[in-house]
Specification:
Layout lengths: L2 E6 L6 H10 L7 E6 L4 H12 L2 E7 L4 E6 L5 H8 L2
Parallel strand pairs: 1-2
Antiparallel strand pairs: 2-4, 3-4
């Protein structure tokens, strides 16, 4: 298990969600992605993204200055299931 940190402070919607999606793709099950954001919309966008990918997310810190998400990559990816379904 590895933990990767992704600093997206200063980026505005939709960049935090897009960059988080890209960073999640190469991770293996059990790996963690720690994401730092300042965009207030990320509290909506990133959990929605993680729901789509089938991974797990927690907001571990939320202050006026930043939001920190801890995302755990799981095996139950909806994207993988959809890809298998359409192959």
């Amino acid at each position: 298990m590895t933990r990767t940190t992704l600093d997206l402070t200063g980026l505005k919607c939709p960049l935090p969600a897009l960059k988080t999606r890209k960073a999640l793709k190469p991770l293996k099950a059990g790996d963690q992605l720690e994401v730092y954001c300042t965009d207030p919309l990320s509290v909506i966008d990133i959990p929605n993204l993680v729901r789509e990918t089938g991974d797990k997310v927690e907001i571990t810190e939320r202050t006026e200055a930043r939001i920190v998400f801890l995302i755990e990559k799981t095996n139950g990816s909806i994207e993988s299931a959809n890809d298998a379904l359409h192959s």
